[in-house]
């Protein structure tokens, strides 16, 4: 009877003229914890508005206990035969059975899967195929005899940019059995509004773009003019390429074969490479570009051109040199505890000036180091004997901090630190440091990972006010009248809405939180409108993306003091860990030492390191690099490392990058990954710091303690892509870093915290989303600037501080340190 009572109250207040929000507020005052959720209130208000004034549910016949009957199987099959593009939802509606039952019928009884149409390419003749083989062999011979062949190439491609494409290929998906051929589909007619893009690019990026004026056609004269412009651009930005000789690669379109084109190329000093016959429908030169604008509707051609140029600018230099194989690999932890459940477990708070900068920028001094130190200490249960009683640390918190099982080499690293001139110190988590090499502090318990879920969620699982939904995918935050009232999720194949009486707290990480907000209508207005998402708040969600990147360098040693790669695969290693909790499995990613260095004068003055050394006491062999998604060619180039048994890997890491990336939506489908443009090394400053980091690793390898154990730098074989530079020169290492720099998986900043009214900020200093009531973001995405070190513990600190803000507790007093 409670339900009828609630509905009667809702009806009474509705007839008095109150809206859903006002009704909900009054009912919360009366019923408190027993109050129905906001979704129920809005549901019944809508029913009353539609003219249905009864407070009793309408009578329904209900569904049979088992919907998977022969009759329903036959009905579903008949509907599919009539329309192979019919959706699961449409089938459920027409048959009046559940979505789950429809899916069971489709997959288990009819053995059907929905597959996309396949384009039909134009077939090549036998002569064309042979000509293609001969041409490719000729180009391969040129590459083998010319060390600069790859770098000399300038590629030109022409493609139409459309104002909109009315039907993406995915719309052609049909239900088919595995034995059936996929459906065929003619290409759809695109919009009449279009412009021809001519793009010239090389392994270092875009050189020049040109959009053909309306009414013109691509002729020999037009293309000759583009070649002259290209030479001018090369003279300004690629002088070295002009000196070594430009190899121009374009297809066999008539304008490209015209006499005027060939003569202009000769005058410009370009050599035109032979282009093999191909099927135009399979040309992939513009594949990534087209995917980025596929399905988007632009107001006009100028808007489309702006989107294309933005995409070009968002790609890092390495995107052009190594293509899709070099796209950043960003795994995220879709598990309780988030990415902290798959990380390296290093405890690094960052430094005083990281947080003081946040406080100054936001105008909220409770974010300075003296204040947030309270939370770092609250988190911590320090188990390292020499640090337990330090004023910088604390005991009894949920996250245990201890040393790992260490190889003898980890102690030699500390000796090397002093030999390199760094002051003796055993603690980098003091708020400041001049630098040095330290043993790594880890958050773990008795040799096992101690994630945030184990530390915080599992101990609270029995609480009556905590409900954890696993295998649930958040689609969006439900926002009504600028008020967050719940979240929409997909669980067990069904869409559900979970209502909120007070606040929605979004803690999906720097990728997930930005993705969810964008899908919820909170983000850049132009981006949302292009995808027909109603704009709730025009905020720079997804901008300000920052990440730490590193470059790996390997040294071998003569003494058996490090771990070996083969140690991972012995029975003794497994037995040792199971029985005693020791050995290489007790050493997270063999990250036994961390080093810090102040490179720039300002950093040294403030004792605020801008370079970190991640030191793995093991030779990073070529097979391991496959996990970082390096190309097979690059892995093969590093195979010389595999001959060394003992050694270490020094990874200089950029702590405060100036480059900024962004996250944008690919589509409105919540299961589509967002587009991530990291823009690594977009600023020269970032490259300069890493090059100096290479020098610091070499200084470590040549220190007296390392030389005493026979340390020898192994990476003396020049990379093929950089062999045009003198080995060991600054230019060589800059090239090598561009080729092989990798993420440390520390993305932050996409929901930037800032002062009220700051147009670059998404949340205020209380982590409330600007312009939306009842919604906060609590994770690393709120960082205005990335912290100078691993980001796991700072993220937990943000969570602890947010808990106090949500509960309305006053900020703790600043601590001395």
TrEMBL record:
Gene3D superfamilies hit by this protein: 1.10.10.1450, FAD/NAD(P)-binding domain, Glucose Oxidase, domain 3, Ribonuclease H-like superfamily/Ribonuclease H
Residue ranges occupied by any Glucose-methanol-choline oxidoreductase C-terminal domain in the UniProt entry: 657-799
A Pfam family this chain is assigned to: Transposase_1
Any GO MF annotation of the entry: nucleic acid binding
Domain Mos1 transposase HTH: 6-51
Chain coiled-coil ranges: none
Keyword DNA-binding: no
Secretion signal span: none
Keyword Iron-sulfur: no
Keywords linked to the UniProt accession: FAD, Flavoprotein
SUPFAM superfamilies cross-referenced by the UniProt entry: FAD-linked reductases, C-terminal domain, FAD/NAD(P)-binding domain
Domain Glucose-methanol-choline oxidoreductase N-terminal: 328-549
Cofactor: FAD
Stated family: Belongs to the GMC oxidoreductase family.
PANTHER family, per the entry: CHOLINE DEHYDROGENASE, MITOCHONDRIAL (PTHR11552:SF147), GLUCOSE-METHANOL-CHOLINE GMC OXIDOREDUCTASE (PTHR11552)
Entry protein name: Choline dehydrogenase, mitochondrial
């Amino acid at each position: 009877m409670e339900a009828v009572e609630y509905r009667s109250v809702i009806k009474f207040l509705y007839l008095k003229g109150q809206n859903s929000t006002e009704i909900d507020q009054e009912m919360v005052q009366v019923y408190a914890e027993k109050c129905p959720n906001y979704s129920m209130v809005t549901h019944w208000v809508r029913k009353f508005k539609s003219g249905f004034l009864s407070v009793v549910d309408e009578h329904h016949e209900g569904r049979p206990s088992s919907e998977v009957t022969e009759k329903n199987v036959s009905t579903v099959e008949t509907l599919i035969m009539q329309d192979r593009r019919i959706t699961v939802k449409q089938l459920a509606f027409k048959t009046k059975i559940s979505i789950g039952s429809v899916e069971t019928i489709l997959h288990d009884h009819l053995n059907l899967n929905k597959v996309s149409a396949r384009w039909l390419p134009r077939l090549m003749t036998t002569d064309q195929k042979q000509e293609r083989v001969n041409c490719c062999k000729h180009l391969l011979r040129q590459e083998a005899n010319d060390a600069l062949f790859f770098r000399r190439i300038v590629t030109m491609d022409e493609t139409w940019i459309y104002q909109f494409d009315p039907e993406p290929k995915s719309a052609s998906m049909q239900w088919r059995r595995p034995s059936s051929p996929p459906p065929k589909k003619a290409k759809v007619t695109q919009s009449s509004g279009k412009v021809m893009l001519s793009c010239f690019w090389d392994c270092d990026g875009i050189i020049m773009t040109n959009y053909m004026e309306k009414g013109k056609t691509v002729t020999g004269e037009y293309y000759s003019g583009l070649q002259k412009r290209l030479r001018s651009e090369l003279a300004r930005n690629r002088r070295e390429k002009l000196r070594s000789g430009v190899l121009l690669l374009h297809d066999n379109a008539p304008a490209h074969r015209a006499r005027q084109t060939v003569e202009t190329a000769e005058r410009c000093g370009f050599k035109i490479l032979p282009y093999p016959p191909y099927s135009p429908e399979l040309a992939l030169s513009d594949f990534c570009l087209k995917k980025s604008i596929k399905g988007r509707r632009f107001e006009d051609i100028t808007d489309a051109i702006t989107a294309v140029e933005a995409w070009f600018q968002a790609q890092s230099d390495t995107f052009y040199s190594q293509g899709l194989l070099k796209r950043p690999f960003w795994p995220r932890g879709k598990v309780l505890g988030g990415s902290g459940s798959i990380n390296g477990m290093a405890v690094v708070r960052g430094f005083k000036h990281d947080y003081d900068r946040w406080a100054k920028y936001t105008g909220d001094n409770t974010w300075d180091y003296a204040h947030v130190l309270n939370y770092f200490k609250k988190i911590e249960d320090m188990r390292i004997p020499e640090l337990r009683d330090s004023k910088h640390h604390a005991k009894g918190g949920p996250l245990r901090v201890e040393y790992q099982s260490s190889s003898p080499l980890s102690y030699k690293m500390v000796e090397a630190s002093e030999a390199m001139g760094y002051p003796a110190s055993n603690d980098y988590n003091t708020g400041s440091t001049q630098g040095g090499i330290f043993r790594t502090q880890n958050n773990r318990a008795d040799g096992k990972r101690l994630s945030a879920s184990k530390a915080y969620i599992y101990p609270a699982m029995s609480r009556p006010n905590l409900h954890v939904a696993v295998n649930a995918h958040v689609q969006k935050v439900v926002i009504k009248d600028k008020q967050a009232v719940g979240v929409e999720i997909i669980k067990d194949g069904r869409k559900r809405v979970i209502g909120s009486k007070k606040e929605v707290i979004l803690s999906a990480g720097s990728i997930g939180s930005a993705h969810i907000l964008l899908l919820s209508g909170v983000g850049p207005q132009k981006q949302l409108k292009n995808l027909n998402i109603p704009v709730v708040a025009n905020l720079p969600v997804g901008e300000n993306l920052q990440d730490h990147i590193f470059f790996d360098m390997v040294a071998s040693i003569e003494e058996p003091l490090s771990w070996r790669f083969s140690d991972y695969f012995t029975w003794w290693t497994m037995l040792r860990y199971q029985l005693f909790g020791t050995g290489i499995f007790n050493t997270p990613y063999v990250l036994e030492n961390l080093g810090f260095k102040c490179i720039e004068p300002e950093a040294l003055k403030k004792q605020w390191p801008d370079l970190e050394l991640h030191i793995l006491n093991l030779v990073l062999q070529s097979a391991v690099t496959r996990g970082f998604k390096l190309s097979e060619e690059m892995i093969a180039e590093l195979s010389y490392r595999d001959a060394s048994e003992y050694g270490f890997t020094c990874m200089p890491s950029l702590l405060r990058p100036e480059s900024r990336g962004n996250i944008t939506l690919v589509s409105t489908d919540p299961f589509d990954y967002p587009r991530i443009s990291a823009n690594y090394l977009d600023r020269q400053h970032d490259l300069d710091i890493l090059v100096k980091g290479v020098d610091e690793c070499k200084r470590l390898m040549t220190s007296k303690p390392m030389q005493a154990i026979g340390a020898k730098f192994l990476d003396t074989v020049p990379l093929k892509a950089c062999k045009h530079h003198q080995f060991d020169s600054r230019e060589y290492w800059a090239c090598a870093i561009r080729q092989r720099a990798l993420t440390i998986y520390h993305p932050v900043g996409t929901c930037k915290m800032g002062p009220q009214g700051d147009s670059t900020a998404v949340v205020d200093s209380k982590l409330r989303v600007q312009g939306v009531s009842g919604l906060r973001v609590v994770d690393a995405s709120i960082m205005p600037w990335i912290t100078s070190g691993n980001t796991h513990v700072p993220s937990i600190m943000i969570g602890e501080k947010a808990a106090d803000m949500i509960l309305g507790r006053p900020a703790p007093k600043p601590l001395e340190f």
